[in-house]
Amino acid sequence: MAKPNLLHIIDTLGIGGAEKILVGIVNGLPGFQHHVIYLSGSDAMTGSLPEDCKIVKLNCRSKLDLIRCAFKLNSYIRNNNIEIIHSHLFMASLVARLACPQHVKLFTTIHNLPSKNFFSENWVAKLVEKLTTAKRHHIIAICHEVFKDYKNNFGVKGEYSILYNYVDDNYYAKEYKKMSFNGIFRMVAVGNLKKQKNYSYLINAFKTMPKNVYLDIYGAGEQEKELRAEIEKHHLNINLCGVRKDIQYVLPQYDAFIMSSKFEGQPISLLEAMASGMPAILSDIPVLREVTNNKGIFFNLEDVNDLVTKITAIADHKVDLDEYAQSNFERVQRIASKENYMHTLNKLYLAPELHRVKHPLVFSVKTLMPGIPAQA
């Protein structure tokens, strides 16, 4: 029996959270014939796709070129008997909605908070998003906060699901990390060097941080030059370590994970750190509270002294990190199992005529992932 043809479309195949999830889906669901189409940019993740996966780059030159891309995608869908489409990120999702025939199922994963990301000050993008979505399109939000933000900004016309991101099995430690640092406290941050990640906050905090506290940041991006200059100017205990593909082996070397983001969707780097058994030190924003179920050490983004005070207490062994590490470790196993994720997605893809149900069909985390509270 022929495998169903499943097409994935995304903006680029560079190294990022959404790209990582897409590649994981392709490798994790061998029961489909996978097709991957990306608009433009990096192809760094193509080597991680299986040999039988068909890969096409549309070479999108600008926003004005999206119409051409939509026509090309529509032709590909018809010529390859595509039955299911799964889109990721705004541009690719727009092209998918314009190109998708009515008889083809279309799933769109929302990876970030619309109000804080692409749509924050772009009324044209907001209008286009509203005009191109239809009842037959199925929204997949990566957490409750992301879904709530999307619903408040655009409304939801059809079916939707809330499906937490997953962590690859090779990140999971045998047990959570117990406090063992003596004298030197080492933290790690993972994420692209861009404004959203708010690394400037950490740099300002380290100007008055105790000298026995160190931070290594893994990632690359547009802010690298200015961040490095500020670190060197003030001789801070911060190292920019670039990109590592084997980060699962790097994380256990540190005492805690830290994230200073202004906003997030559901950061895979945090889930990976939790799976590695690490305690989380996080900016006090709703998404990060949801991911950890409020069991993290949260700091005020409006006050760098708040972070300095809390890190100083940790470095002086006045805070027991073990309870946070244990809670984070147990939490990630409940919400971020790869097996449950693939089972859920497979069920969504194959649900008969799901996109023609008259009333929204809500797959809560509880329904599709046994043992997890719906508001986990």
Give a topology summary:
Blueprint lengths: L4 E6 L6 H12 L4 E6 L15 E4 L8 H14 L4 E5 L1 H10 L5 E6 L12 H10 L4 E5 L2 H11 L5 E3 L22 E6 L8 H8 L6 E6 L5 H10 L4 E3 L6 H4 L5 E4 L8 H8 L4 E4 L2 H7 L4 E3 L4 H12 L6 H14 L2 H13 L11 E2 L1 H4 L8
Parallel strand pairs: 1-2, 1-4, 2-3, 4-5, 5-6, 6-7, 7-14, 8-9, 8-11, 9-10, 11-12, 12-13
Q: Major sheet, described briefly?
A: 8 strands, parallel
Encode the helix/strand succession as letters.
EHEEHEHEHEHEEHEHEHEHEHEHHHEH
Quaternary structure type? single chain
How many helices does DSSP assign? 14
Main-sheet strand order equals 3-2-1-4-5-6-7-14
Helix content: 25-40%
Note the beta-strand portion: 15-25%
Structural class: alpha/beta
> Could you tell me the radius of gyration in angstroms?
21 Å
* Cα end-to-end separation: 38 Å
Taking all residues together, what is the mean pLDDT? 90
Structural shape: globular
